Amino acid sequence: MNLEYFIAKRLITAKDNKSSISAPIVKIAISAIAIGMIMMIVSVATGIGLQKKIRDKVSAFNGQVIISNYDNNNSEVTLIPISKKQDFYPNFKSVPEVSHIQAIATKAGIIRTENAFEGIVFKGVGADYDWNNISEFIVGGKLPDFKKALNEDVVISKFLADRLNLKVGDQFNTFFVKEEQGKLPNSRRFKIAAIFNSGFQDFDSTYIIGDIRHIQKINKWREDQVGAFEVFVKDFNEIKNVGNQIYEETSSNLDTKTIIEKYSYIFDWLQLFDFNIVIILAIMILVATINMIVALLVLILERTQMIGILKSMGSNNWSVRKIFLYNAFYLILRGLLWGNLIGISILLIQQQFGIVQLNPENYYVNQAPVYLNWIYILLLNLLTVSICFVVLLIPSYIITKISPVKAIRFD
Fold first, then answer.
1. For residue range 155-198, what is the model confidence (pLDDT) as tens digits?
2. Phi, psi dihedrals of residue 234, rounded to the nearest 5°
3. Helix (H) or strand (E) holding 99
4. DSSP labels, 362-389
5. CA–CA dist 177, 187 (Å, integer)
6. How many C-beta atoms surround the C-beta of residue 307 within 10 A?
7. Do residues 70 and 250 lie in contact, with contact meaning Cβ atoms separated by under 8 Å?
8. Were 209 and a residue from 155, 164, 299, 338 both cysteine, which residue would form a disulfide, CB within 3.0 to 4.6 Å?
9. What is the b/e burial string over 278-293, where b = at least 16 CB atoms within 10 angstroms of the residue's CB?
């Protein structure tokens, strides 16, 4: 039988324990552990969730690695075409980490209606375009099919549709300026097949998606000429390494750029979340350990006579310390139980109902996203238990200084 565990269990279940001096302090310590765990779970889940959501949105509309001409590097509009007859297209076999590659082209234009007009970038896509990347953002209509004959269907953002007073099924004129000066712009009439709402103002206010063959005709390109290639990788965490591999496998007249490089201001901002999460974790664990230290010291002082009796009966210092460490461990587990229960419940509620709303102009999302990863939650629990337990070894050292004779007389 584990004597220390047996005594610790009796101390925990003792009836007079609830009315003792340490009772309110113990409750505060348990509450501190619980609140700390709630804050840690919520901050990690929402912080990583926000990073992942924004990263996925940027990837959905741009790919994760962009292959283009050097001349197009600083422009959203593709000027010089690239041949589709490349070794890496349509399958990037030389870089196995690539999951998909698609050809696109972009051209600036102006949408004109009877009452309004808006400047846009027409993004032309073809049969190889993976609509799954933006399907979650579709709020109305049906995605077009560009695998057959050339058609006028386009996907427009809710932002632009509202500003132009358009809806699914409506038609509108778009004018594309020619590169040659003094010539009349090209006009195309498009029909809205679907409306998307990404919550990402940079994209919603700019892009409409349509058939790439319109751009090829306007620019007088051949069928095998496109503006750029969007590449998707299997593991986003390896995007820098994969980007370098793609660069090595493409010809010298082509440039490759990851979305981290293209949208550095967004990803630099996202990296700040990692720092904020670390700060929150450190503060919460610090608060929890301080409260547990105070609770343990009070428990030790309250049981001074018991410590003296156990020492006089032959118990060594470490044996007595283990009794109180078991007791503290029980309090930590109670706090973690309530913290996990409440924290995970908050996240599930947010995940299902989206109660906490965010300003998309500042955060690029409409509501606080949640990323529930049970491994992260388990690691947070193990980290809290480990740090608290190690730190509590220090105040438990006071037991070694307690004299049995003085302790038995202690009142």
1. 999 999 999 999 999 999 999 887 666 677 788 899 999 999 88
2. -70, -40
3. strand 98-112
4. HHSSSB------HHHHHHHHHHHHHHHH
5. 9
6. 25
7. no
8. 155
9. eebbeebbeebbebbb
